[in-house]
Structure formats: C-alpha cells, structure tokens
Amino acid sequence: MRPASNTASKAATKPARPAAGAAAGAHAKRPAGALADYASRLKASAAARLATAKKWGLTAAPLVPPPPPTVKPRITTRKGFGVKGGDAGLPPVFTRVPTKDKVVFITIDDGSEKEPQFIKMMSELHVPYSAFLTDYLISDDYGYFTKVQASGVTLNNHTLTHPYLPGLSHAKQEHEICGQQDKLAKEYGKRPTLFRPSYGNYNRDTLSIAKSCGIKAVPLWEAEAFPTHMDWRDEAHFEPGDIILTHFQGRSEWDATMVENIRNLLQRITDQGYAVARLEDYV
C-alpha cells in the first residue's frame, strides 16, 4: 500500500478555518461582553454606595470627586485678606481653591469631640476631610486622632491653645504656632504644611512665623457648617473650590452629634450637585 502523500497528510491535520461570519461574531462578542461586565460592576458599586449612604441616614450617596489635578492650581492671598506691610513671600491666605471642578472641601477644627462613629461613617462613605487640631483639646486622647490619621486624613496646625494671635508678642505667637508643629510631629510623625489661625485672625507676624516653621498655606473658609444651618461668607450656596469649616464638636456644645452634623452637611453638598475632594490634593 502506498503511503498517503504529504499534501494529503497536511490537509488531514490542518484545522478547519471558521467561516468569515463566525469569526466576526466571536470577535464582536468580546467587547460587548466586557462592556456589559463593566456596566454591571458600576451598577453594583452605585448600589453599594447608596446602601451605605442610607445606613448613615443620607437620602443619596455622596458624589464621587474627579481625579486630583495633575498640576495643583496656583493659590494666592484673597483680595482683602493681605497683611500690613504686604504679603509677598508669605503663605497665601484664601477661602476658596481656584478650580473649575465641582468640588468643595470639608475642614474640621479644634478636637474636643472624639466620636468613634464619626471615623467609621467617613471611612465607610469614603468622604475626605482635613483636620486642624488644637493641642489642649486633643491632648486627653491623642490616640483618637491617630485613628483619624490612619483613615487617610491629614492632621494640620490650629495652634497649641487657640488664642487670639494678633494680641500676642512675636515670641508667644511662635510658641503657639511652631510649638504645635513640634507637638504634631512628635505625636503623628509629620510636620504639617497647612495652618489655620484661631478664629481666623492673624497679622504679618503670624504668617511670617508660620512660614519659618514649615507652613506653606493658610486656608480659611468660605462657609461654616452647623447642625441646623450654614453661615456663608458671600453667596448662600456652594461654588467650585469652596472651603467649608466645621468643628470636632458634639452634644457637649451642640444639640447634635458629630455624625448628625456632618450628615446634614453632606446632604446639603450632594443636593447642590457637589462632590467632596481632598484639600491637600489641590493645595
């Protein structure tokens, strides 16, 4: 018997080609399937966010902020907020970050209230904020703010004892500002670059001293949040880049817990179509 020819052998072992239509159909299914899977994951994520929001008493999930800017905006001192003798070379004082992003920034001052549920709520909702701490109010429980820091929050300088800084000598201002830099570095391992003077009051000495011990910027606020209302510096609504002030305070000072206060604030922010971004990503 003669062996089969090489041609016949190759023909027998060569896999059959799929029809053109079948090949096109197989390729078409891949991106469609991937798109459907992506849409399904987005839907599940949105549902999970809404469920978490409702758990904390919100009617809608906080909006997701855009990615941080690749280049931080140039920040200058707000008109009317400069100091006698000029502010050239001093840390800028501002109430709003120059951005077109529809974001606002939550900043929380002092440190008297230390509510564990507040840390849990902000972590579960993935809402960023910045803390400005006063030593005499946090010194009874530095560990609480270790947990705040561990949740991704930056701990910033708000003086040692919350005095009216312009009424102090240069040496006493230096003690209040640079002393708090040292305290925060000792307790939390990092010297802040942001500083908020107590009551929002400062003079040229304040800014010069702050610069001398590592401060790069002095964010004040455009609006202040209370459990029942907002105080506005200018317009009675949010604008892109607004800095919002509230406090680590609870029922000892207000007729509300920290969770209730921040929940009300988040509801206002979301209702106006804004997301909460991280201040340190822009400054």
Attribute tags:
disordered N terminus; two-stranded parallel ribbon; single chain; 7-stranded mixed β-sheet; globular; 8 helices; 39% helix; 283 residues; alpha/beta
Task: Please give a quick description of this structure.
This protein has 283 residues and is of the alpha/beta class. It has eight helices and nine strands. The radius of gyration is 28 Å and the shape is globular.
Could you characterize the architecture of this molecule?
By secondary structure, this protein is of the alpha/beta class. Helix content is 39%, strand content 12%. It has helices at 6-13, 20-55, 116-125, 135-138, 142-150, 170-188, 204-212, 258-271, and strands spanning 93-94, 103-110, 130-133, 154-157, 218-219, 223-225, 230-232, 243-247, 275-276. The strands form two sheets. Strands 2, 3, 4, 6, 7, 8 and 9 form a seven-stranded mixed beta sheet that branches. It has a two-stranded parallel ribbon with strand order 1-5. A hairpin with a 4-residue loop joins strand 6 and strand 7 (230-232). The longest helix has 36 residues, at 20-55. 34% of the residues are buried.
What's the layout of helices and strands?
Blueprint: H1 6-13, H2 20-55, E1 93-94, E2 103-110, H3 116-125, E3 130-133, H4 135-138, H5 142-150, E4 154-157, H6 170-188, H7 204-212, E5 218-219, E6 223-225, E7 230-232, E8 243-247, H8 258-271, E9 275-276
Parallel strand pairs: 1-5, 2-3, 2-8, 2-9, 3-4, 6-8
Antiparallel strand pairs: 6-7
Helix pairs in contact: 6-7
